[in-house]
Amino acid sequence: MSGSNQDFSPKDWIGQSAIVDLGPTIAGVELWGEQTNQAFRKTLFDWYDKEGRHLPWRESKDPYRIWISEIMLQQTQVNTVIPYYQRFLQAFPTVEDLAAAEEDDLLKLWAGLGYYSRAKNLHKAAQEIVNDYGGQFPQTAKELKQLSGIGPYTAGAIASIAFGQAVPAIDGNAMRVFSRLFTINADISRQKNHAIFREVVAYVMGDERPGDFNQALMDLGSSYETAKKPLSDISPIKDFNLATLTGTELDYPVKLSKTKSKTLHYQALLLENSQGQYLIEKRPSQGLLANLWTVPLFEVANQEESDQQGGEERQPYQNLVAEAEAVYDLRPVVMKKSIGHVRHVFSHRLWEIDLYYAKLSPTAEKGWQDQEDNDWVFLHDLNRHAYPTVQMKIWQALKDYLDL
User: Fold this and answer.
1) CA-based Rg of the chain, rounded to a whole angstrom?
2) What is the mean pLDDT, run by run of 10 residues, along the chain of 404 residues?
């Protein structure tokens, strides 16, 4: 279909599928008519009422609970989120409680979920709701998008589920389902193409049970309409699905390959003092892992970069001694060989970390000056600070080395 955002037309399947009439062309996508729309929604709701997932945040229409769950579910699997969600609501049962929380307490509760900017934006948005809206959630998607950390998807989810507004919640699941329904060939990795899906979904969803409609799309996308192994032949919407009817399910959604993640190499200094405590430091307030605590990490060039730079190569333990002296005014004894390795994948980069154990003599400790962004901790008492997942991997590797 030249000049459109669609590969196959629903008109070719009238009388051979559940498609019985034609509707408008929206955003370059030829759609079915209202009679088919009603039949599709009935099929979707009948399935959702029987097979929809029973999740703790679906037990309430409270916008606060829906908001917390939607933010946690970004980039994180449902089974991982559930215990975090329950602990979070125990600690901060209302938006006022969250607004009044200390950031360090919030980050400790969030530790392990990753993408810590989500937690910081939750905190900021809670303060905005309390200060600017008197503790009452704004009820329109337009107003919700003005809050920190709330984009079109989250605004649509809250507005539709909590307040019954007919607003699409366009995430990867919704785009996957609808790209197959109408064989939409727009690249979903391009942000501007999300508008195509918003318009198409808005037409199909109508005004009936918009919150359930959006949640049903989420459940379909995680069950019958998965990315790599869709169960198209038994999907409840198979008779409406152009990709299923044409045998092209795996061609959709269209998504260009991501840019290869950048790999960064680090040396971790596991520095133990004479009391058996380990040195940690608080990361800067901006950037990746902001305000979280880690052992000292020093970025190093990989082998290829080292060869290009030339010069005499310094051994890792020598590098760490020099760094500790320059940064902390300490001169530890560092083991010559790494005690382990940690690999951690972020969404846009890969960290490769070699771990080096080091000891500090009582004499060397005399010049140490306590600083706000440094602390010493025992391995059996790590709960006083918020650590990112990568640091928890480092702690575990150290415990394995020490056979603890």
Assistant:
1) 26
2) 72 92 95 96 98 94 97 92 96 98 93 89 97 95 96 96 96 95 94 95 95 97 92 94 92 80 91 93 85 92 49 69 81 89 86 93 70 89 90 94 88
Distance CA 236, CA 279 (A): 56
Could you please report the per-residue DSSP string of 267-307? EEEEEE-TTS-EEEEEPPSSSTTTT-EES-EEEE--HHHHH
- Inter-CA distances, 236 with 95, 182, 217, Å: 38, 16, 12
Return the H-helix or E-strand segment holding 375.
strand 374-377
Backbone phi, then psi, for 99, in 5-degree steps? -60, -35
Same domain, 237 and 284: no
CB 316 within 8 A of CB 338: yes
pLDDT attached to residue 56: 96
Residue 164 token pair? 């019954």
The 3-state secondary structure of 13-73, one letter per residue: HCCCCCCCCEEEEECCEEEECHHHHHHHHHHHHHHHHHHCCCCHHHHCCCHHHHHHHHHHH
Q: Domain for residue 130, yes or no? A: yes
Contact 14, 22 (CB under 8 A): yes
Instruction: Report helix, strand or coil for 374.
Output: strand
Q: Which residue, chain included where needed, has tokens 């009439």?
A: 21
* 267-to-79, 189, 341, 356 alpha-carbon distances in Å: 33, 34, 9, 7
Q: How many Å apart are CA 160 and CA 38, to the nearest integer?
A: 19
Per-residue model confidence (pLDDT) at position 314: 61
Is the link from the previous residue into 332 a cis peptide, with omega within 30 of 0?
no
User: Rounded to an integer, what distance in angstroms lies between the CA atom of residue 111 and that of residue 89?
Assistant: 15
Residues 111, 180 share a domain: yes
Active site residues per annotation = 70
Residue 4 lies in a domain: no
Domain range for 347: 262-402
Question: What are 296's two structure tokens?
Answer: 């000292």
Q: Say yes or no: 274 and 386 in one domain.
A: yes
Cα separation, 271 vs 335, in Å, equals 11
Backbone angles phi, psi at 366, to 5 degrees: -60, -30
Query: In this structure, what CATH number is given to the domain that contains residue 157?
Result: 1.10.340.30
204 shares a domain with 106: yes
